[in-house]
Amino acid sequence: MKKYLVLLLLCCLQGLYAQVEFTATPSKTKLGLNERLRVEFTMTADGDNFNPPPFDGFNAAGPSQMISNSWVNNKRSFSKTYTYVLTPTARGTFTVGQASIEVDGKTYKTIPFKVTVTAAVDKPNDPLAAATENAGKGIHVVAEVSNYNPYVNEPITVVYKLYVSQDSSVRGTRQMDIPQFNDFWSQDINASGNTIKQGTYNGESYRYIELKKVVLYPQKSGKLEIEPLSMELTIDVPTGRRDFFNRPLMTQTQKVMSSGSKYITVKPLPEQGKPADFSGAVGDFTFKVTPSKTTLSDGESLQLTVEVSGKGNLKLFSLPKPVVPAALEMYDPEHNEDISIPLSGMQGSISDVYAIIPQNKGKYPIKEMAFSYFDLSEKRYKTITSEELIIDVLSVSNTTADATVTPQGAQKQAVQTTAQFRFVALNTTLQPKNKQHFFRSVLFYILLLMPFVLIPIIMLLKKKKQARDNDVTGNKIRKNNRLAKKYLSEAKKHLGNKEPFYVSLEKALHNFLKAKLSIETSEMTKPNIQELLLSRGAQQETVTDFITIMNNCEFARYAPSSGAAMQQDYDHAVGVITKLEKEI
């Protein structure tokens, strides 16, 4: 008895080991933009019709194929591997989908996996790049940072350059990744583009072009990363052969190069001596408050301009707001900017213009205003205070605010004290356009009798709907009929596209059977289908044609198929369904 159990166990184990395995194995699932990965699709049985997945987000090279076949202890061990080398084209998380293979008429698929592509790394761990390592000699992508230890909101400049030695040649460039300056306010500056300049790098003479220039204002203190710029370069590489004139023959290869991440240490603004009204201004500024006039009469208004000018982070702080007496009505300001941003940072002026309208005559003060900023040259805070202004209102007209327009176009209208209210007109003189009486007219009687006619019709329709809703079998049949027509229409749209065409056609056939035979998917075996169709009065020839079409749908997806064959299968399916509709 024990011997039989052992033999049974061995047979089961042999069956397990004989099972076909098809797997996808990546060399890594997280890599930098300037690295590559290898993906191996391995099967334990010899298969056909290998279909790789779409490699979205990557450039794929391959496949290379390797077959291993060995015998150990009278047991055969077989494996077949397709290998792809993937080069990322952008940052992000990408899914490598299912590959498929056909073994002995069965289709096997791999499990999808995700790959995360980060910014380019400083030291790429890329053994696959050994073959092209020499291609990048004498070529450097560099990020030049003007200041590695700035204050918060102090401008720094980053210039990305491509240096090429005299002995190297670059045929083309393509920017692969745009740096993300997450902890900075940034402004791109127009680079010189393809203008070739002469310069030095590591003490040697190089040609270079400027790839990108940007001005950065750090927004927080601490160690901050300046992300790298990654470029795909087309580089000339010697083949080791020479032409008839003994000149070296060259070939071209693509290589991804990166400037590498740069790190700066940002100092916080000092707490000692920081004014209470400090709003974040850093640079060198002047401050002034200017009224358009200080003496007003006959309903005049004035404009008060609060302006800061100079060099610094002009877009990154707010201006102080004036405080005026209640007798002066002040509107929201119109904000103006006149700023240029060269490589050295922002410079120019910003201003808020307030419209002020007096409500009563008299003399009213506008208190002095203070503006504080951090001076980078002296490393200390400074405060500029404006003078107090006196607005002398000689007279106020009754119509002062009737149509006073602010810089934004808002209007202020005063309510006259002599005419605050008016009587509402109560008497009307409305007259109907059509003087014919509606009462006892033809339309009157039609509308009167219409509900009595509609009520029985509505009740009859409701009863029919309720009966239809209760007809579960009939509803299933109608639903399957609709689905059959829908999928048949989809199949027609996919003519020429093999897999979706046959999937839609197969679904149309299944739903047709569900509608006509009242069976479920689990009951759709070919002998059962044949028996049920014949019992419903279908001809043997028609049933055979129907089974043939079902077989075509199952196998055609995995075999080569032309557009003419798909059109023939579609026409055949429509003809057979039409015949069965008449015969059943």
UniProtKB/TrEMBL annotation:
Transmembrane annotation, as ranges: 442-461
Annotated coiled-coil positions are: none
Ordered alphabetically, the record's keywords are:
Membrane, Signal, Transmembrane, Transmembrane helix
Q: Where is the signal peptide?
A: 1-18
A Pfam cross-reference name: BatD
Protein known as: BatD family protein
Q: To which species is this protein native?
A: Flavobacterium litorale
